[in-house]
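Hey,

The postdoc asked me to send both predictions to you directly instead of through the lab channel. I've kept everything plain text so nothing gets mangled by the mail client. Protein one:
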Amino acid sequence: MNRLNNLFYSRDASMVATDLLGKILIRKIGDTVISGKIVETEAYYGSQDPASRAYKGYNNFAKLMWDRPGKVFIYMVHANWLLNIITGELGEPSAVLIRALEPISGIDKMLINRKMPFKQLTNGPGKLTQALGITKNFNDTDITKINNKISIIDNHEKLNVVSSHRIGVSKDVERKLRFYVYDNNFVSKK
């Protein structure tokens, strides 16, 4: 299986969000490998997207959204770290939020990190970062580089993808920028 490269992320956020479904997110902690299949994502854009961290323009908080595609952008919402991957072209802010994973490996470690039942380990953006031990220390990591503690690899799996409105977004609610795998038990909300 191949690690996704910069070209994969150098596309429109909605395309990347859709194409990330079924890919495998891998987190290495020492000799332990924790992984899960991405089953839910959301796309965010720049100044034209009032729900985006980049909506108000370039600022220190969201400056990574203007960086190279494939960079990790971590920020906190409601005491939870959220994992985003920068997409599009350099200087044009957009990102994909990883909302949910289906656990594959390292489940014992996930259970220690989250202390929750199996079905609730990774079925939300804050839940998956807690289960995988992803914190602000991953901010600005290039997910396309070899030997990182976090990566995404291709899985070549064909899935039934559904689009809907983003979760918890009260602005720009017309656009369907949330994507998830139909009938997957680890999707945060159906």
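Protein two:
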Amino acid sequence: MDCHRCENKAIYTRRYSGESLCRDCFSLSIVRKTAKTISRYNMIKRGDDVAIAVSGGKDSLSLLHVLNNLSTKGGYTIRAVTIDEGIPGYREEALEIVDKYCKGMGIQYSVLSYKQMYDTTLQERLEKRTDSTSSCSLCGVLRRQAIEQAAAGADVVATAHNMDDYIQTFLINTMSGDVSRIGRNAVGTSRRVQPFCNIYESEIVFYAFINDIPFQSEPCPHMDEGIRTSVREFLNELEEKHSGIKNNMNKSIQKIAGFVQDAKVRRTCRICGRQSTTDVCSVCRVLERTA
């Protein structure tokens, strides 16, 4: 089968559109779609210092690769920041992969650990957990603030959340009854941006593969504790039966998120002094519960 955009042999077919693409045209389509998303939502401006949260997985290293290609023409600079949660036997491999990749690409790179920031590790906190809070929820709270700290001084913080992640988060927030988070997650409403928000996770995997991007394939040992895995499997099953349903859901969700107002008032946490929507921020509550 020939590529629909040139005369080369196609190696990938998008079931949701029927388009078949060769290696070069597929890669270019991902870069162009990312650039279009950045432009549409005014995510990054000329002169911006962009800190990219890089975990060592396929999504974040692919985002680093794409933004590195776009940064010169876009007139902005990039740097990578990685958070070491302190997960024994897991995070070490990712740190090594990111360090080697950034050095090879000539990209500025820094690491911030939970131990440095909170004087504890994720593993230590999980061992002291006394309630049913999932490890993903606990880690997510600590990780978000750690990324902000690691990216201090940056104009923009770019995360590699893809279209699948975006849909999953919307459904999880809806099922948990936290409607305010839907408005907070609207695309292009904060300095934290998601340039991959309109790209399928499966396409990012393929992009990493054909561009020889190294990444940690071993999943986090705690990933199955939360509801996200069940939601992911449900959505993948739907997409398999009804090609394009994720794409349609994503468009609808972005419209809904744009109409939902984040009604929570911003205040200052009385313990750490950081911005919060409650008297005590989520990070301090987590640290208190697992002390």
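Summary for protein two, as requested: The chain has one domain: 34-218+225-289.

Thanks,
C.
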